[in-house]
Design a protein that fits this description.
Layout lengths: L1 H94 L1
């Protein structure tokens, strides 16, 4: 009878040790998952920051493009004015 109780206690002890080991492994895995989630969140923050930077650069490029287009329009106008002035000058020379 004592031998049976000893055997039962040994079986219960083995089961308890296996449960404790499983709980410890589960805790370790949960900790690793939490670390992975934290790292993923940090990387997403970097990506978000990079996207914001690209968006700002695109906006600045758009503004610069509008300024260049405006300058090109002004140069075209000045070239037309100069062409008109040269045509008048040539006509005056031929008329003289």
């Amino acid at each position: 009878m004592i031998g049976g109780i000893t055997t039962t206690i040994g079986v219960i002890s083995d089961i308890t040790n296996k449960i404790a080991s499983g709980i410890q492994e589960q805790g370790t895995t949960t900790h690793e998952i939490a670390n992975d989630v934290h790292q993923a969140a940090a990387k997403m923050q970097v990506v978000s920051s990079n996207i914001f930077g690209v968006s700002q650069a695109m906006s600045e490029t758009g503004n610069a493009s509008r300024h260049v287009l405006s300058a090109v329009d002004e140069v075209i106008k000045q070239a037309d004015d100069l062409r008109h002035a040269v045509d008048q000058f040539v006509q005056q020379i031929w008329a003289a």
